[in-house]
User: Which sequence fits this backbone?
């Protein structure tokens, strides 16, 4: 009897420890995501009880939807505008932080300070800074003898403003991820390079970047997933409007999804957009995975 | 992706990584010069400026903001604006809601992550590797895309507009399980568990007496990261709550939305929303940094 209890404990009880996680994750994580696919095949609105099966009709409509392509283009542009400078600056910053500094914790804290600020707060503060009439940036431009810019009105200007918010919030965070990877690189490599007279910048490009390449690819994937979810910045930059500007010049995919679902209450069509976004993420992740494994082999 | 996760070894090591200076025949590793500190100071100003600016705008009357040059120092109106913000939106309720929601999510995530992390790191069972791979894969899945059925589910069980709806999807985190699995894998010696078993300890007693005490530092770090993420969560609370019974972020959004924005008021709101986390950050920043560097994932 005692033996049986012992075997039950050793063989069976491990499952008890993981069951809460899997149950809750299935209920509130995986099930909604999977059910989105089912909803996307229907005409499904919040207000109607009947859900007519449409097959792929919603998808055909989506691929002909001008607003969808506009939102996809905006999302891609904001992603490039924010990710490229963000990751380059993060690399430089991590390189600077990767020295024997006095008070290293203090400097690291200043780097991640923006990241603990909530995305809503960041968007509101920067909306003021980029304001047309009382904004700080326009005051500086005017003082320099350049004209004021209506940041919200233009496509490029509004997307730059939104990208600045993202860059400000995430550069330091990515720098810390890089820093963690850099500290695993052998110090002897740098010592040898120093003795050979390599400059600090050469050490960064010749030793550090190749050594932490997997981490760089990882941050690219993570910023892609993050980039697909940009919502608070354009929403609050536009004063709470779901269209992302009068000409939808800064409406992102997530914002479009939000508009279709919770302003038009067209759940079926919004689910279609959600699955299209999921598909894009999978494709980007697959490309990245392919590149990573090729890098590993070479 | 696992390559980037540096092995957790307790936060002490992660925040104090600089090795002692080494000597090579009279050659001493160079200390960074003035230029480095100048650059870092610039960075610190860049990081802090928008927060400082929210205090500048939040401490002035709205009318003053249109002046040329705009005010660059603090003004006298901060408390008047705070009072006005509390009068416009029920920030007291919002703060209480946010504390409650973030606290509940933190406790739940830490508990379930520690349980699952223990099983994945130290117990042998059929399907362990496959299930662990599943956990790692789901870390990358943007569950935000399932927001529509989640809303339908909450409407069906009549939880929309309540804090239950905000807490439920946050109860577990794949990242948390991964984080604790990594930590416990290294921190708990397998021999210790075997010895306890030989002494007739049940798995539950091993968890309670051996694993739980060891897991404390990592649990604290995971708890802080989870609390911050929950506090700052925006989209889902915005969808499922109303401005009458909001979290802090939803209250902020309501304050900043509309055709005419009262910037003094809305930036005062950002101060109210940010200060609680700033306090936590200043007090525990060292550990938060260690946690991020041990392998955090953007949430």
Assistant:
């Amino acid at each position: 009897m005692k033996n049986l209890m012992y075997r039950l404990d050793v063989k069976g009880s491990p499952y008890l420890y993981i069951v809460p996680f899997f149950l809750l994750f299935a209920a509130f994580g995986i099930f909604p995501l999977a059910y989105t696919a089912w909803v996307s095949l229907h005409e499904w609105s919040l207000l109607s009880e009947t859900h007519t099966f449409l097959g792929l009709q919603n998808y055909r409509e989506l691929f002909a939807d001008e607003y969808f392509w506009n939102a996809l283009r905006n999302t891609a542009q904001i992603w490039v505008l924010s990710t490229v400078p963000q990751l380059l600056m993060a690399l430089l910053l991590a390189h600077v932080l990767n020295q024997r500094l006095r008070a290293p914790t203090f400097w690291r804290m200043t780097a991640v300070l923006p990241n603990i600020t909530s995305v809503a707060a960041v968007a509101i503060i920067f909306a003021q800074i980029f304001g047309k009439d009382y904004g700080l940036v326009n005051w500086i431009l005017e003082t320099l003898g350049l004209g004021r810019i209506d940041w919200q009105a233009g496509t490029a200007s509004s997307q730059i403003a939104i990208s600045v918010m993202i860059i400000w919030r995430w550069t330091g965070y990515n720098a810390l991820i890089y820093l963690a990877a850099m500290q695993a690189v052998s110090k002897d490599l740098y010592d040898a390079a120093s003795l050979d007279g390599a400059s600090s910048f050469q050490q960064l490009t010749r030793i550090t970047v190749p050594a932490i390449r997997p981490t760089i690819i990882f941050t690219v994937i993570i910023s892609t997933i993050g980039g697909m979810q940009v919502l608070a910045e354009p929403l609050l930059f536009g004063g709470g409007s779901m269209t992302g500007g009068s000409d939808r010049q800064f409406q992102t995919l997530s914002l479009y999804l939000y508009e279709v679902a919770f302003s038009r209450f067209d759940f079926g069509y919004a689910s279609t957009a959600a699955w299209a976004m999921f598909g894009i993420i999978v494709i980007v992740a697959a490309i990245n995975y392919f590149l990573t494994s090729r890098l590993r082999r070479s | 992706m696992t390559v980037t996760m540096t092995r957790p070894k307790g936060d002490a090591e992660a925040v104090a990584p600089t090795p002692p200076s080494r000597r090579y025949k009279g050659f001493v590793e160079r200390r960074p010069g003035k230029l480095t500190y100048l650059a870092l100071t610039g960075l610190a100003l860049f990081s802090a400026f928008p927060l400082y600016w929210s205090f500048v705008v939040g401490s002035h009357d709205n009318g003053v903001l249109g002046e040329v040059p705009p005010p660059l120092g603090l003004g006298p109106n901060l408390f008047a604006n705070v009072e006005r913000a509390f009068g416009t939106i029920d920030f007291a309720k919002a703060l209480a809601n946010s504390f409650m929601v973030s606290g509940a999510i933190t406790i739940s995530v830490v508990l379930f992550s520690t349980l699952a992390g223990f099983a994945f790191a130290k117990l042998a069972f059929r399907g362990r590797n496959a299930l662990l791979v599943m956990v790692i894969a789901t870390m990358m899945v943007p569950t935000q895309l399932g927001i529509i059925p989640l809303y339908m589910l909450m409407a069906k069980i009549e939880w929309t507009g309540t804090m239950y709806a905000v807490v439920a999807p946050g109860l577990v985190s794949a990242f948390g399980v991964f984080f604790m699995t990594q930590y416990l894998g290294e921190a708990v010696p397998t021999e210790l568990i075997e010895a306890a078993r030989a002494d007739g300890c049940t798995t539950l007693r091993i968890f309670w007496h051996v694993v739980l005490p060891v897991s404390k530092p990592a649990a604290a770090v995971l708890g802080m990261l989870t609390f911050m993420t929950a506090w700052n969560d925006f989209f889902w609370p915005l969808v499922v709550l109303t401005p009458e019974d909001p979290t802090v972020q939803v209250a902020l959004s309501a304050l900043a939305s509309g055709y005419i924005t009262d910037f003094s008021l809305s930036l005062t709101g950002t101060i109210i929303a940010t200060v609680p986390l700033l306090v936590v950050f200043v007090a525990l920043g060292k550990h938060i940094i260690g946690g991020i560097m041990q392998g955090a994932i953007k949430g």
About this structure: Chain A has a mean pLDDT of 90. Residues 2-39 of chain A form one domain. The two ends of chain A are 58 Å apart (CA to CA).
